[in-house]
Amino acid sequence: MPVHEGLSQGATEQASSIEELSATVNDISEHIKRTAENTRLANTEAQNAGKEVSHSDKQMQQMKAVMKTSASPVKSVRLLRPLTTSPSRPTSSP
User: What pTM value is reported for the model?
Assistant: First the structure.
């Protein structure tokens, strides 16, 4: 094989390898872009979930406060009931 044919064949093989490498780099680049976009979307979803959790926590705290204030009169009535229905106290009849 003459030297110029060997050089030509070597150059052709290198060009082919460069094309394959370029295609691989493009594939990797596209994969990185998709991963970045998916990460951005996941971050947005996580932030939204955090806001929902915070909102739910506030609602729960409000509900607990209402239940606490609502339970106090009920407890007071229960504590007072034995005093008003004492057996030693006569009840009046009309």
Answer: 0.53
